[in-house]
């Protein structure tokens, strides 16, 4: 259907666009200028910087150094360790978050009591400053005054530990916070997707004797799939870009165990002043995000053919 | 559809588990905010403060310039919101009503900008703002937030404009209303709730934002609330927990209240933009 309406729509749009003429430009220009100066421009500038030896506070002129930054990055084991941590973080947050949010959305879609309370609570993290979310979980993980260790002590499961400072638990601990903080967007998107699935189909399948799992797989999932793909892709991107949560929780410690690529690049640029090198890191991250996006788009197109 | 009692019980158990997971950190923050220093020092913290005290709130204001930081945050968020909405509304109108290469490029930018790693933008942005002498300036931060809020505002507003039937505008034109008149007295009133929701969301995101504020604001007197909150945490990660919790709680209240007002519209608007583009 989409294919049938598109040409007509485009033709109509073209005449409307011509009629609008200068008026449209006049309306668009005020927004276009800041976008070009402070968004598109810096992005291109950033890519150029990656090929220079730009540093902060240096008097000598910045020079082109070709791909030297990238060659250095290639041999920078600290960067690759940070990169690995970033991937573990992004996948470790996105996947469990998706499953948890899907479960919650399915529950919220049922006629249950407390549904409104759960929905309201599920939205709260969305409105909170990330810094506050980080502070809040520091209080939860606090070795002495934190509720986690106290609960463990009450249950007789030992004295607990210093979750954010021990090498083994720091990354899992911040991943849990990442999952908690991102629940709202994922849940809301999936819930909206669920509410768009045709109820009659569901009922027909139930009458035909399909069990809950079978109904989910054959009726719910196909309808939910586009939304699920979109929100998962967005979550991956957001998580790769994540900064404030981990900055507040651990500041990359202990021993760099939670140093996400964003934290690494931030330190490189604004603590050590290596602008060119940090820009090269940014480029690598962009490349990774683009690959993720491409995979997502390919998946989405395939989904479209199925439907 | 009927559900078997056993399945129902399972659903309630699961919902309860979700409620606990979602609510317990929030309750703990609230509980810590009202605990006395002595109670925070004891080894067996309780859920309900044994001797609730507002002392932490007073101490929080003594330790850090919270009011001043809140004022900075308010100025930046208001400025960014106003400018972003003023710039985005006409552009969203054009994007929704006229299909042109320009609108397509703008839509592309809206999507791509979501994927920018901030690192790649922040360094050149820092240099550009330095040339313009806008580092460590609230106005510089306002500009950054405007550009940062625009993709989202465009996305939302384009959806809202599409929801206003073009036939209404055509009818007004047939009745002899000029283009400007049509926009002001037909389109704008219908668009107002959407604009309000978009503005409030832009305000909340600017109020909450941390990374750009951390990089761009240096002098303590100009820093926004999220940046000042991190000062409660010492260099060694040691923090005065009571005042920290109290300040964090206070900083969240405005966002929560505003978000409660617009939550349904925002989720609706996000999807409207998503479905129709």
From TrEMBL, chain B:
Broad class of where this protein is predominantly found: membrane
Subcellular location: Cell membrane
InterPro entries for this protein: BP-dep_ABC_trans_perm, MetI-like, MetI-like_sf
CDD domains named in the record: TM_PBP2
Keyword annotations: Cell membrane, Membrane, Transmembrane, Transmembrane helix, Transport
One GO-annotated biological process of the protein: transmembrane transport
Location of the ABC transmembrane type-1 domain: 70-262
UniProt signal peptide: none
GO cellular component, one term: plasma membrane
Transmembrane segments: 12-30, 74-94, 106-127, 139-161, 182-207, 244-262
SUPFAM superfamilies on file: MetI-like
Membrane topology: Multi-pass membrane protein
PANTHER family, alphabetized: INNER MEMBRANE ABC TRANSPORTER PERMEASE PROTEIN YCJP, MALTOSE TRANSPORT SYSTEM PERMEASE-RELATED
Family: Belongs to the binding-protein-dependent transport system permease family.
Protein name: Sugar ABC transporter permease
Species, as recorded: Streptomyces cellostaticus
